[in-house]
UniProtKB/TrEMBL annotation:
Highest rank taxon of the organism: Bacteria
Lineage: Bacteria, Bacillati, Actinomycetota, Actinomycetes, Pseudonocardiales
Annotated protein name in UniProt: Serine/threonine protein phosphatase
Protein species of origin: Amycolatopsis eburnea
Domain PPM-type phosphatase: 10-222
Amino acid sequence: MITTRPGYPRWHTASAQGPRSLNADAVGAYAAAGGPGVVFALADGVGDDPAAARAARAAAAAAARTPVHKGPVEAVLAAQRAVREQAGGDAVLVVAMPAAHGGYRIAWVGDARAYSWDGTTLSRLTTDHTLAEYFRARHQPVTPRMEHVVTTSVRTTEADEIGTAETTSTGLLLTSDGIHKPLAGGGIRAVLAQPGAGAAELVEAALARGGSDNATAIYVEPLEADVTTVRFPVAA
């Protein structure tokens, strides 16, 4: 899906079930009347079952509808309250809120990621909350299995465990691990560098690379992209 609205950035979202039995990823995007822009949220349900899918949908919706002045950490906590109202299910989550300087304020739990993209440079804004990253930061051996074990989640996190970051970039990418694990940074960069590429092309590339999970992306085009792709009619 590609969304355009006067006064707001052009953004794309795409998701695919992949080889899983259902799609437990979810996205949310909400622009409050009179607000400074769009709040974006991407949630990845923990597991491959209906409870995980419900948790992801509840988390993404609650996070995206959090007022911008409350900040992205409060958006994660709002998602937590929504998930805890359900009998079961959990998710990881990344939220991006418009910042006063024109970029975004980010908050996350688990291994959902945010990147900035200016049309040339891809910069990762988040650090995975996984067992692998925990031991890697302590210069300890890491096994492949540790990459898939998260140390924070929407249901379980404490407020001081929520990751935060900021970017001045207007170009933004949020991904579930079904995108960034098969593609890594180089693969993502190669896709976005192609003219007209966005969320759908990232999903297709991740599955073509052998992705074994749900694959979901939200891509907000950098404002500079509008300048180079829209022609202004000039009288002869």
